[in-house]
Write a structure and sequence with these properties.
InterPro entries: SseB_N. The protein is an alpha+beta fold. It has 2 domains: 134 residues, no CATH class; 96 residues, Alpha-Beta Plaits (2-Layer Sandwich), CATH 3.30.70. The chain contains 8 helices and 13 strands. The strands form 3 sheets. Strands 1, 3, 4, 5, 6 and 7 form a 6-stranded mixed beta sheet that branches. It starts with 5 loop residues before the first helix and ends with a strand.
């Protein structure tokens, strides 16, 4: 059995070259996208969570050095806690959102190969990066062309992000655009998007750009099959097929934090 997780792999790549910005961003992307098990003092009470806090403060004259603890596997949490312990399973992005501004750091996988203490400022940065929705802008596209010579990391980031869009769009196509002011950028066109899903898809596209480390303008557009503009984009662009949803037999009750717009309350 291979005990190495995707977070372990991203951590090892980051540690192998601490000057590699792309590797560091990929680690934070894995942390945000993955499910984490947050160690609690007591069982979940409604939408209120009471996390265990590790206090590493050693000098009363210095600011508190405190961390909530999260693990990417249940057995790692149990090993650290030396037995069964209450926890909440939450996406990393939800944990970052509920911690922002708290002054607490995040201890991840303590005792495991990807053990790391993330300071409060870095947690706040992650929450800020994940939080704001993209702004709507207007611009006149003059021409479209194939998006050649793009970083492999960017294409990989788009592919992995769009897997999470299963069932809410048919496909997405990436194309290079030249605008009426002479500037250039990228356009990601979604086809046959489910009503109301546009903000989530735009945010996913924005995150893919951020975590790839690519500093290029990205606009997101939404089209339906039969649009002439979509046909032009599909002819020259790079297409990402979005998985179809897996049908479920029965509804599942939402767990605390499953709605990213309503994170649980940190006590």
């Amino acid at each position: 059995m291979n005990d190495t997780t995707r977070l372990d792999q991203a951590y090892a790549a980051m540690q192998a070259d601490l000057e590699d910005d792309a590797a560091r961003l990929e680690f934070y992307e894995r942390l945000a996208d993955g499910e984490l098990f947050l160690l609690l003092k007591s069982e979940v009470n409604g939408d209120h969570l009471d996390p265990e806090v590790l206090d590493l403060s050693g000098d009363e004259d210095l600011p508190p050095d405190q961390y909530v603890l999260a693990f990417d596997r249940e057995d790692r949490l149990a090993t650290f806690a030396e037995g069964p312990a209450p926890y909440a399973a939450l996406p990393g992005r939800v944990i970052a959102a509920m911690m922002t501004g708290s002054g607490l750091g995040l201890g991840v996988n303590l005792g495991a190969p990807s053990s790391i203490l993330i300071p409060p400022a870095a947690v706040d940065w992650l929450a800020e990066t994940l939080g704001p929705a993209p702004e709507e802008v207007e611009g006149q596209v003059q021409s479209l062309s194939a998006p050649i010579d793009l970083p492999e990391r960017l294409l990989k980031s788009f592919s992995e992000k769009l897997v999470t869009a299963a069932g809410i769009a048919d496909h997405a196509t990436l194309v290079r655009a030249t605008y009426d002011d002479g500037s250039t950028g990228l356009v990601l066109a979604f086809a046959d998007c489910v009503a109301g899903a546009q903000p989530a898809l735009a945010r996913a596209a924005q995150e893919a750009m951020t975590f790839s480390g690519t500093e290029t303008r990205l606009d997101v557009g939404f089209f339906v099959t039969g649009d002439e503009a979509l046909a032009r984009i599909d002819r020259v662009g790079i297409r990402f097929d979005i998985p179809k949803p897996t049908p479920t037999e029965s509804p599942v009750r939402k767990a605390p934090g499953s709605d990213p717009d309503k994170p649980p309350i940190l006590r």
